[in-house]
Inverse folding.
């Protein structure tokens, strides 16, 4: 049976309401010894009957506290007001403050029963609608994660090194975001870390002889390589158009990341747009440091692979190419906190590959 909390200080009214409703619902009455909100938090009713003319209490003030409660499960509880004064002013004020309905004394049992039944029917419909929306969003999320994974596999088939690299970067990004002081929700952190899988998607458009070259790139070839940022963002924008009006937060972050993960916080020498500071989206700033760390750990035709400590020191203290000013100080701070996790992610991946 669904719970109804009666907030009423007149015991005769409490008994009357209980006699009307106790065959269909579990009725709980307000204990005057307790604070009203405390009673609601303990009982967690499905509906509240609130008398506006309470002894020593302001019914509208109680309604305000219910509807402004930080717990949405409480603030969303339907409240039917009971009043001895059937004025338009009270009706308007009550509805504006969030009450779902009003009933006036003397209470007609049949009218009250109908109003309560209508509220539960409406609430059940809203719950089913919310569940349907959540299921649809989960389906979209799963489908997009499948798309992300499929594209990352495509990258992997085209360039094995890049394929493993993007999966490690995804893990680094989640680690950094979880160690930053931000207002990002867990959901958004999930969006950004999953979107990081596609930061190098534009490399599938870079000429193969440039992408797979086993020597130092010429200036022209390096310029070709740099175009993977713009190419990647443009490819993802085209994919986003296919989803039309569907909420595609993943793609929003994937586009940001693909386009800006080679920009530098100091504004010196980043590409493709030479952005500076917070002109660079947070998602791009986070992937930037993850991408640099992983690149330092890998062997290249023009360099040997650096150890974790060497890579850490280069990022934190700088060398002839990389300086700490290239990175957002807050992101750099988070990197320092979770550097050991970076080492673990890289080493475990190398072990699975048989390289350590």
């Amino acid at each position: 049976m669904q719970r109804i909390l009666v907030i009423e200080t007149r015991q005769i009214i409490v008994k009357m309401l209980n006699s009307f409703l106790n065959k269909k619902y579990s009725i709980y009455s307000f204990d005057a010894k307790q604070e009203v909100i405390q009673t609601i938090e303990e009982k967690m009713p499905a509906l509240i009957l609130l008398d506006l003319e309470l002894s020593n209490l302001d019914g509208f003030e109680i309604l305000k506290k219910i509807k402004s409660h930080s717990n949405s499960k409480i603030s969303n509880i339907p409240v039917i007001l009971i009043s001895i004064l059937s004025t338009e002013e009270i009706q308007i004020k009550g509805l504006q403050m969030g009450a779902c309905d009003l009933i006036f004394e003397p209470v007609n049992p049949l009218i009250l029963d109908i109003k309560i039944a209508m509220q539960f029917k409406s609430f059940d419909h809203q719950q089913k609608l919310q569940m349907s929306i959540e299921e649809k969003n989960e389906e979209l999320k799963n489908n997009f994660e499948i798309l992300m994974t499929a594209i990352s596999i495509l990258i992997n088939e085209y360039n094995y090194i890049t394929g493993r690299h993007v999966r490690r970067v995804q893990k680094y990004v989640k680690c950094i975001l979880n160690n930053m002081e931000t207002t990002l929700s867990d959901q958004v952190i999930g969006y950004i870390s999953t979107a990081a899988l596609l930061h190098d998607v534009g490399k599938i458009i870079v000429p193969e002889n440039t992408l797979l070259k086993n020597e130092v790139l010429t200036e022209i070839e390096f310029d070709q390589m740099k175009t993977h940022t713009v190419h990647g963002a443009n490819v993802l924008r085209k994919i986003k158009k296919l989803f039309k009006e569907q909420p595609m937060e993943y793609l929003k972050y994937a586009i940001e990341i693909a386009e800006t993960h080679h920009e530098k916080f100091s504004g010196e020498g980043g590409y493709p747009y030479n952005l500076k500071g917070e002109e660079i989206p947070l998602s791009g700033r986070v992937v930037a440091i993850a991408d640099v760390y992983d690149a330092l750990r890998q062997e290249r035709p023009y360099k040997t692979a650096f150890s974790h400590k060497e890579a850490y020191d280069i990022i934190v203290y700088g060398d002839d190419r990389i300086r700490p000013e290239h990175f957002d100080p807050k992101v750099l701070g988070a990197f320092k906190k979770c550097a050991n996790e970076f080492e673990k992610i890289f080493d475990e991946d190398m072990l699975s590959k048989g390289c350590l």
Remarks:
- The domain at 131-353 is CATH 1.10.3210.10 (Hypothetical protein af1432).
- The radius of gyration is 30 Å.
- The first strand starts at residue 3 and ends at 7.
- The beta strands are 3-7, 26-29, 47-51, 53-54, 57-58, 79-83, 101-104.
